[in-house]
Specification:
Layout: E1 2-5, E2 8-12, H1 13-16, H2 22-40, E3 48-51, E4 54-58, H3 59-73, H4 76-106, H5 116-125, H6 129-132, H7 135-146, H8 149-158, H9 167-181, H10 184-190, H11 207-221, H12 223-256, H13 260-301, H14 310-315
Antiparallel strand pairs: 1-2, 2-4, 3-4
């Protein structure tokens, strides 16, 4: 949430995540401060951390940052850079989380925790795409190409279909699959934590709760045939949306032909808009996974996960800070 007062912009994730744990707010605040480095190759952190999740930024610095990011993202080079950073950040965070889960399983020291803050800063910096997306400028560009603002808006909106499956629809499809396999434990461990955001355990992390939900779903849709029909409907809807994205992007490229500047900006939109949608979906998945691993790590160290910042969790890798938040 953005507040302005006496020349200062305050990004307040305490208000936005009013029921979240300290580390959740910390993730967003740290990501915001890292955004200039990630998106602009500018090493200067954005603003000042008042407390975890609350960042104060001089208004001129903030507005300059936003303008520079939007300008860069509307170039193919800038959009491709953001996409590369995102893919690399996802891969690195996944790798560390897999190692941490192995550590939790065999009871060895979680040394990889020390790597998480820097990796998550890069990943979480990209949450700024949600509100830095140059959608107005993109629609203006597409309006020139198509000669019609409504057609431009339809094209821009179509580009916002994620390339990766939407995490909530994917969760529902996995539930449908689980109705056939009966692997309630596998579902609970793989995706149960994604049922609800936050640090607290979700109901579907309990295989028994998954079994009840599957039974309820079966009864509601009319058994196996109804489940198959629902799954097929989701797939067909996604295929239509993807095809529309591809078709309208191709039309925009065709309208850009012969103009190098327009061609570059159209390609940038074709990279950037799906990236913003993918970032929202993949980041949500990874945030949920991160929070589950941190919760389980805190339980292993007998500390209260609700009271720890990301740096506090990282300190557990070496045994430092284990007394903070004790009482779990």
């Amino acid at each position: 949430m953005e507040l302005r007062w006496r020349g200062v912009v305050t990004a307040d994730y305490e208000m936005e995540l009013d029921h979240g744990a300290l580390v959740e707010r910390d993730l967003y605040g740290r990501g915001l401060r890292a955004a200039p480095c990630v998106l602009l190759d500018d090493p200067r952190p954005l603003g000042r951390t008042r407390r975890p999740g609350v960042v104060d930024i001089d208004v001129e610095v903030y507005e300059t940052f936003c303008e520079r990011v939007r300008e860069r993202l509307l170039t193919l080079q800038g959009a491709m850079h953001a996409a590369t950073v995102f893919r690399d950040a996802c891969a690195q965070v996944c790798s560390v989380l897999e190692q941490l889960e192995r550590r939790l399983a065999d009871g060895t020291p979680p040394v990889e925790l020390a790597q998480l803050p820097a990796l998550l800063d890069r990943l979480m910096a990209l949450h700024t795409l949600n509100w830095l997306l140059p959608d107005r400028e993109a629609v203006e560009h597409l309006t020139v190409l198509f000669g019609d603002e409504q057609a431009a808006r339809r094209c821009a909106l179509a580009q916002m279909v994620p390339i990766v499956p939407a995490h909530l629809l994917d969760l529902h499809q996995r539930l449908i699959t689980t109705a056939d396999t009966g692997n309630f434990t596998g579902f609970a461990r793989a995706v149960g934590h994604l049922q609800a955001p936050g640090l607290a355990p979700a109901a579907w992390e309990d295989p028994a709760a998954v079994a009840v939900s599957v039974d309820t779903l079966r009864k509601r849709v009319g058994g196996s045939e109804g489940l198959a029909e629902q799954d097929d409907r989701i797939r067909r809807g996604r295929d239509r949306a993807v095809q529309q994205r591809v078709d309208l992007y191709a039309a925009a490229l065709l309208a850009s032909s012969g103009d190098a500047s327009a061609w570059d900006r159209t390609q940038a939109i074709g990279v950037l808009f799906p990236l913003a949608a993918d970032e929202e979906e993949e980041r949500r998945r990874l945030q949920g996974w991160v929070l589950r691993v941190l919760r389980e790590t805190a339980a292993r160290h007998h500390v209260d996960a609700q009271t720890l910042t990301l740096d506090d969790f990282a300190a557990l890798a070496s045994g430092r800070g284990a007394e903070r938040g004790r009482g779990c």
